[in-house]
Amino acid sequence: DAGVIQSPRHEVTEMGQEVTLRCKPISGHNSLFWYRQTMMRGLELLIYFNNNVPIDDSGMPEDRFSAKMPNASFSTLKIQPSEPRDSAVYFCASSSDIRFYEQYFGPGTRLTVT
Amino acid sequence: GEDVEQSLFLSVREGDSSVINCTYTDSSSTYLYWYKQEPGAGLQLLTYIFSNMDMKQDQRLTVLLNKKDKHLSLRIADTQTGDSAIYFCAESSNTGKLIFGQGTTLQVKP
User: Fewer Cβ in 10 A, N or C end of chain A?
Assistant: First the structure.
């Protein structure tokens, strides 16, 4: 069974450009989480969805960040315009309602904004 | 607000036991977790414990929870070089929203 799939694995972009990160959760999981990992702030929850509906977006840094989940098998995190301080590793994780306490993480997308 | 604290670094010799400690502040924490992150990889769920338990053992891993002191520990028996990684403690309530500590880097010397 495939785990959480994220793409791209690495992204290098210039300041001001739009960046879109993609995530496919584990089949059958109906909660999806976006996290960001930096040296300074550690692991932070940005937003999470349940049954494709955003439940808590209080961790989204600012209006430049947006996330969507158009269906149960796909989510995007978009940064527009990107800034150097957005450089981080972005992780997607998913869990099921029955075992919601077991979150499984994808391999992450390493974003570098120059 | 919720906070999770860990020591940043631990060094042990291969074959010894490792004990990684964590403290948390949220008394409503329902689940406590240990995740492992190897270089360049995502987080791997190692084990978790419900707040109404004191101990959980899974092969070489033993988790101890002192709910009164809000203290969680992870003991790795017979530590191997493959155990070298960053270990994250995390807690959540019933929402499933995880609050992570800053991670403990475990270095295993041969």
Answer: N
Q: What's the rounded Cα separation, in Å, for the pair A61 and A74?
A: 22
pLDDT tens for each residue of A55-85 = 999 999 889 999 999 999 999 999 999 999 9
Question: Could you please report the per-residue DSSP string of B52-72?
Answer: T-SEEEETTEEEEEETTTTEE
Q: Which residues of chain A are within 8 Å of residue B96 when distances are taken between CB atoms?
A: 31, 33, 48, 95, 100-101, 103
Enter the tokens of residue B93.
Answer: 């309530």
Cβ-based interface (< 8 Å): residues of B facing A: 30-31, 33, 35, 41-45, 48, 88, 92, 95-103
Distance CA A88, CA A42 (A): 10
Task: Determine, for residues A43 and B100 on separate chains, whether the beta-carbon distance falls below 8 Å.
Answer: yes
- Tokens of residue B62, six digits: 């033993």
Asked if pLDDT for residue B1 goes beyond 70, the answer is: no
Contact B42 A56 (CB under 8 A): no
Alpha-carbon span B47 to A71, nearest angstrom: 30
Q: What does the pLDDT read at residue B51? A: 87
A107:B31 CB<8 A: no
